[in-house]
Records
---
Amino acid sequence: MRLTYPHMGEAYIAVKAMFDDLGIESIIPPFSTDSTLRLGAKESPEGICLPFKIMLGNYVKSIEEGADTIVITGSCGPCRFGYYGPLQKLILQDMGYDVDMIIIDPPKEGIAKFINNIRRLSGKTGFKTYKVFMDAYKICEKIDELNQVQYFVRPRTKDKAKVNSIIHNFKSQVLKLKGSREISNMIDKTKEELLSLNIDMDANPIKIGIIGEIYTIIDPFSNLNAEERLGNMGAEIHRSMTIRDWAENNLIKPLRREKPYEMEKRLSKPYLPALIGGHTQQCLGHAVNYALSGYDGLVQIYPMGCMPEIVSRSILPQIEKDYGIPILYLIVDEQTGEAGYQTRLEAFYDYVENRKRRLS
Ligand code: SF4
């Protein structure tokens, strides 16, 4: 069995650590590029959302490198994500690829089924699997910490190119490592490299929260590197959802029989008291939380045709009004042009920075 899984931001690092520690060979698809997206878009239903197309492109590239089994998380929520696995398997069959697809539903859909799926995949005892799983979760926590450091350093140093090269180097070098211990050490080393740069501790950059659909805010290819672009302009950004946050709320908390996303549901309740699929409540809850925490602006990113985020989009102007926080709305798909995207980010950055100066 040669496993593969789709790209979703830094998820490949924690998943690689987990499979390495379990002794399972896995093939990480090449980093997503325009050719990945073209490949996926060509075979996908026209109106399907962007993550579906990129993931399909990832699978084809991995299969061409020898993968025969795809692992993907599932969902029974009211949005298209629940159809991703079965539909992608049919498309791959039509393309002549005979691969297995293992869809791991989160524990909230049935804890016994979840544990059995993991055991089936690992072939190890429950205890060993649990330990490896928790080590991978710790990698997710460390990636969040590393990101916090880069978000802090980038707007406060003149050496932005160095920040970018340290992070890009980390993302590619980590592929050569094996297991959670080696990866963990490399994350620590990368953090130290970032902190050794010349940092202006008196700088007071504008703070921008990134909200929206989970895949497009986590995956830099799909959002045209929005975090790096804003950081290079001089903004300190914060990403509302991360792989760690997803794992905590969808895997760890249900296993501990704790309620997920409590803060997000509480703060979004006046605007949307019911689950409608995707991460709408999280998007709205984080928008309110950022406003209450003194952020200067928000950027909502979502794929063209994303049903849950269209609902967020229609509610966010009310939050903008209630809390006096400016929001930029960015829709992404395979037609998104880089120049127009950059111009909108720059215009928003200038607006928010001027506004902050006027108000202070
Ligand atoms: S949340 Fe949006 S982009 Fe993601 S699967 Fe659902 S509809 Fe598609």
Note: The beta strands are 3-4, 26-27, 69-73, 100-104, 207-212, 236-239, 297-303, 327-332.
---
Amino acid sequence: MKKLIALLLCLCLMAGIVPALAEENTRPGAMWINSGIYGTYEGRGEIRLQDDYAAAVNREWAETVSIHEGASNASARTEQTDNYNRAKLAVLKGEKKDDPDLTSLQNFYALLLDWDTRNETGLQPLKPYVEDLMSVSSTEEMTKYYSDPERNIFGTPMVEDELMYHPEDALINILNIKGMKMLVTNTDELKPGAEEGVDLTAKRLTADYMLKRLGYTDEEARAIFDNAKEFERKCQPWTEALIARYATGDFTDYIPIADFESRYKNLPLAAIYRALGFDVQGYVCTLSANMLDGFEANYTDENIEYIKAWTLVNTLLDFTRYFDRETYEAAAKFQEPVTGTGSVKSDDAYALEVMEAVVPTMLDQMYVNYCFNKEIKPQVTELTRMMIDAYRDMINEEDWLADETKAGAIEKLDNFKLYICYPDNLPDYGSVTIGTAEEGETVFSAIMKGRKFLNKVEATALTMKNDGTYWRYDNYYSTLTACYIAEENSINVYAGICGGDYYDPDWPLEKKLGGLCMVIGHEITHAFDTKGSQYDKNGNKKNWWTEEDRKSFQERVDKLTAFYSKLVPMPQVSDETYGEAGAMRIKSETIADLGSLKCLLSIAKKQENFDYDLFFRQLAINQKQARYEPAEKAYVATDTHPVEAYRCNIPLQNYDEFLETYHIEGSDGMYLAPEDRIRVW
Ligand SMILES: [Zn+2]
């Protein structure tokens, strides 16, 4: 049906009949399509650069690209991901070298793909762990189980954690316990007799399958899952308090360690973490203490059967990929209604996915040592410094800022920690040695080594300062990442993003600026967006603005959000706008795109014979996108970035250099009158 409407609409456009659009012509982007929707060019007539730049530049690519099976889109991002995955696989399958870490990774890869051995072993390795867990008969014993990494293969006391920044001194790390590992995502499912949704059903079927493979009867398996659910039902009042707090937007609790220890006594989280190697002190952070309070209140001997069942089910669900083929495929099949696609991957994709989860730091090092052109790092470092210099000039020229505010901004720029491509020094985390099958290694033993190592890395990082000596422990630099971290005041541009449509060392400056430098400038601008601008040079939340400048900043942001709220992100599909809520969600990313382009244009201006066309085209190519319509809808509804086509068109139409390059005038779709322009920087 929707296709039919879309088709009718394009026929109307082709015939020169523009229904309802004439009067809407005043809304921003009225002549654009969302060119990132897969298949959207079908039956469309010519699209001029002057009317819809992103659609015109990326048309040929979009009309010929294919989307991988099981994926929802293709883009510059997915293509570069394919590039580095191919490179990693070639090394993993390649010749052995005198490098113990590489040998470990190659052994791991071989073990993962040896399905014959894995099928023979089945779920056997799990049995002693499950028996051990099910023999627990009190919370005191349960606490011992959680505290022993040799017994508790899940690795934590059934919570998710990461490191956060100390609330008063961002140089210091603290432990953030994000919350319990929950089975139920919708608390309505906990009501007696309530139907279980697709997600919970998938979990039940998976756990049931694994439990029966482990020798439990139908009835026992059902009882274990019911008991696991019952534990969450007992915690429900606290979970609901947590949900209520989420709605307020203020849900992070920083609890001084002494308070934390007296608050969690039944469930001694601090002691358990210490036993697991974490030197917890200062503060512990939690995303709303309500949930941990519920765990604490229900951590009683009376509930021990429920706690055990809950621990077992969550542990099994975490290990579905690590045994035989039958379990992997069964779990993938149960997941299908949740993901919408089959989640069985090709062997190579599967192996990489597991290795990324279990030995990410080793994979990063392998990429840098064997796949990455080392000449790129000094080049990207130099380009980043050039952009920081241009940004400094740009700030100095902002006529709406007082000198005092300018000084605060420049102080931030001058104190950026630059994490470019890959770290030169690694902390002494040690490494993992993974042997061959002949040496007695199994997938399960390798996975356990990797998981323990990851815990050790995190525990080590907890004691380290964020002073720039080392990169953050979970910055995985062989992935496609660039980011600004406000709490570190760091610009991060990883090796994984330095290829494909983003970067080539042999490119002319124009393409480098339109590609990776646009990304770098975007990250720099995040230091001065609505969030970043509240943090100082050390990453502490501290005001460096005069009151008046802050007001002007807010007025500029308000004009920008008003503009975006009127945009229609999927005009071919519906005339629904981003609205106020949508504009609020994407505002930081739009500020970043606009600020970056301004900085790049100031660099371009200083070049001789700068090829603006080449530069602008590269910028559009980086935003090429072909996403299935349902996925695009979900993207529009949830992502913090605007749709890619608009990430290209809107920044460009705000600058005269672009309009002049293509002789764009008032009646052209890309034209934006000076009074309507929305630059924050
Ligand atoms: Zn961003």
Note: The first strand starts at residue 73 and ends at 75.
